[in-house]
Design goal:
single chain; 293 residues; 8-stranded mixed β-sheet; 13 helices
Length: 293
């Protein structure tokens, strides 16, 4: 899928007043038509930039709005005790203040759970979940609840030990291993420049606090799969789930559980958990008919 020209973009700021503390959130718009909100996946390298290829592809027919979550990307990264309530509150404030009417949303990875919870309030007209997840990497890999990893979370938050541990887990070699293991499927795309750009994201002031909460399950929006599936019964809006065919087995199993629910539209695309970035063309082709129907 190609576009004839690059759409115009505008970099904007939204100041969210959380308990008297203003938190600056950066977001970017492409195009000038009906808005669609793009929510990047949570990760150590989460940024609106991973949504940019998709945002540009859709911008000829929509105004795409891609944000950096608080604690990630170019948004403020205060040393908060990041937890689901922070992101539930933020997303509700952002959506209700930036948009005048219900909008379509495309949520990647862990953003899916937050989108589905907010959807219960009737703020989304259509919902697209790309390689959706609800459980953080460590709880998923080890099959244990998030509280099991609370000591890890606190260690990384500590001033000296935390900085050392975070440095080990954001080294370029580790990032490349992570991408090869469960994010991208085409190794040739993991060039030194690509990994270098991802590494730079991890080096911003306060960068370790929100990512370690995600990795250890501290940002899991639900306690179990049943709570996640309950958000789809009944569907709050027309919903499409895009399944990443090469996703890790446990994550793919969660996606397949959604595909089995009544009313959920399903599309399968070759790729892993970084599907929305690596295969933006295929994702755009899948969602355009759904969004324009």
């Amino acid at each position: 899928m190609t576009t004839t020209s690059l759409p115009s973009s505008s970099l904007r700021e939204y100041f969210w007043n959380r308990q008297g503390q203003p938190i600056r959130v950066v977001y970017e718009t492409f195009g000038d038509k009906t808005p669609v909100l793009l929510l990047p996946a949570f990760s150590t390298v989460s940024t609106r930039g991973e949504m940019q290829p998709l945002a540009e592809l859709l911008a000829n027919q929509f105004q795409t709005v891609a944000l950096d979550w608080p604690g990630f990307g170019e948004s403020d990264r205060p040393p908060l005790n990041y937890q689901p309530s922070i992101y539930h509150q933020f997303l509700q404030y952002f959506v209700t203040n930036v948009f005048n009417t219900p909008v379509a949303v495309i949520a990647a990875g862990h953003a899916a759970g937050y989108a589905m919870q907010l959807a219960q309030k009737g703020v989304f007209s259509k919902i697209v979940l790309v390689a959706p997840t609800w459980r953080g990497p460590l709880p998923t890999m080890m099959g244990k609840p998030p509280e099991t990893f609370s000591m890890v979370r606190e260690a990384v938050r500590s001033p000296i030990l935390g900085q050392f541990l975070y440095k080990l887990n954001t080294a370029p070699s580790f990032l490349r291993w992570m991408y090869r293991r469960h994010v991208y499927t085409d190794e040739t795309k993991l060039t030194p420049d690509f990994i270098g750009q991802k590494w730079e994201i991890t080096q911003k002031s306060g960068a370790r606090f929100a990512p370690v909460a995600f990795v250890t399950g501290g940002l899991d929006p639900f306690l179990n799969q049943s709570d996640f599936l309950a958000q789809f019964q009944p569907l709050p809006a027309p919903t499409m789930v895009i399944i990443a065919e090469q996703a890790p087995p446990k994550s793919k199993g969660e996606m397949e559980a959604l595909a089995a629910l009544p009313g959920v539209q399903t599309h399968r695309i070759s790729g892993s958990l970084g599907l929305h970035e690596e295969h933006a063309d295929a994702v755009a082709e899948a969602v355009l008919p759904f969004l324009t129907l």
